[in-house]
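In the laboratory, one determines a bound structure by crystallizing the protein with its ligand and collecting diffraction data. In a computational setting the workflow is compressed into a single prediction: the sequence and the ligand go in, and a structural description comes out. We illustrate the idea with 6-O-phosphono-beta-D-fructofuranose.
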Amino acid sequence: MSKFEIQNLGKASIKSPLQLSTVRGDNIFNFIKEDHKVVYNLSLEAYKSCLDKGQDPVCLEKAGPRQNVFFDSKTTKAAIVTCGGLCPGINNVIRGIVMALHYFYDVKRILGVPYGYEGLNPKMGYGFQELTPDKVKDIHQFGGTILGSSRGGQDVGVMVDTLVHQKIDILFAIGGDGTLKGADAIGEEIQKRGLDISVVGIPKTIDNDIDIIDKSFGFETSFDIASSILRDAHNEAAGAYNGISIIKLMGRDSGFIAACASLSMPVVNFVLVPEMNFKLYGDTGFLAMLKKRLEDKKHAVIVVAEGAGQHLFNKDKVRTDASGNIQHDDIGTFLKNEISAYFKDVMPTTIKYIDPSYIVRSAAANSGDSVFCSGLAYHAVHGAMSGKTRFVVGRVNNKYVYLPIKAVTSKRKKIDLESEFWFSVLQSTGQPLSM
Ligand code: F6P
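The predicted complex, in structure-token form:
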């Protein structure tokens, strides 16, 4: 079995209720066949190397509606759970799943699981919410999640017992790395028990740190919000002699929000991300670069991702949150204090420290993310109805595909400091290549 092969609960032998086509030229969308694949590595080099070895290139399963489905619409019951930190677009995804199940597949019984995986533990006593098109029709206008969320896992056996007890056939889990690993563990337990329950993950994180997929939903809205904060922070910096604005943005282990916000608002002079081990002191250190910038231009804008510069702290022990994520030391205030101490006897400066914190992730999705969220939701429903399980839906090389959960959770996506992307950040900021 290849790394990218998707598991199926069994043979899809029920005719899909969708009135789609199987032929080109009739102006009706065609069902996706199981052998419709998307090439993973688009480089000619990789393609040639496959040809040389007489192998097919590594391919991913194309997402979309299948001609035959596994679940019978009349008896199918689905549940949706949202876990982890908030992210713009969660409500859009919930709405899209409910609408697709209800209108495309005629699945009328849909439960909302309150407060993340906790809601699958009956001991919490939260109950469930019935989700109908009428209940979800307006929720895309709001940030957050109508279901509530929580961090951390629950006993897998207990959660599967709940699915069985509630007669759930499909579980949609919307969440980041921890949630997806949890969903896979649920899928594994279901398999062990020989049950026909499909588990589907929809990757959600503003940090954009889910491996393989082009981007996670909500990420673009987050850096969009951050971008206007950078514009205003620049006004603060430029408004004072040797003015310095430091803006701390979310991004625990990957600096994509900091990098993309800075690219989209090119007023930033330094971007510090978790992927780089910058030095503070010395001739080639960050503070010397900052001094030079002030001497040249009399103001500076610094964007720092919350997970950056952790090597600068003396850590006695690693703290983690309920999802097992490392809780970082506060690089923002640390940097502010270090800059202030460094310039104290060197030159006068005015430092403005700005921490937008949760504001970049609690808003409603922007238009681009709204389109993306609907696409993810519809494709998640198509995949689940056809009996696929333990998979996520995502876009790779700009195409919607299904990927095994394990393929995207084995490591976190990080900025490649040798990539064209990071080079474009350096070109935009003008910070030294060596930093
Ligand atoms: O979901 C990702 C994220 O927003 C990170 O950028 C941030 O470090 C973390 O979640 C904060 O999460 P919380 O404070 O909600 O546990």
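The radius of gyration is 24 Å. Keep in mind that any predicted model is a hypothesis to be tested, not a measurement.
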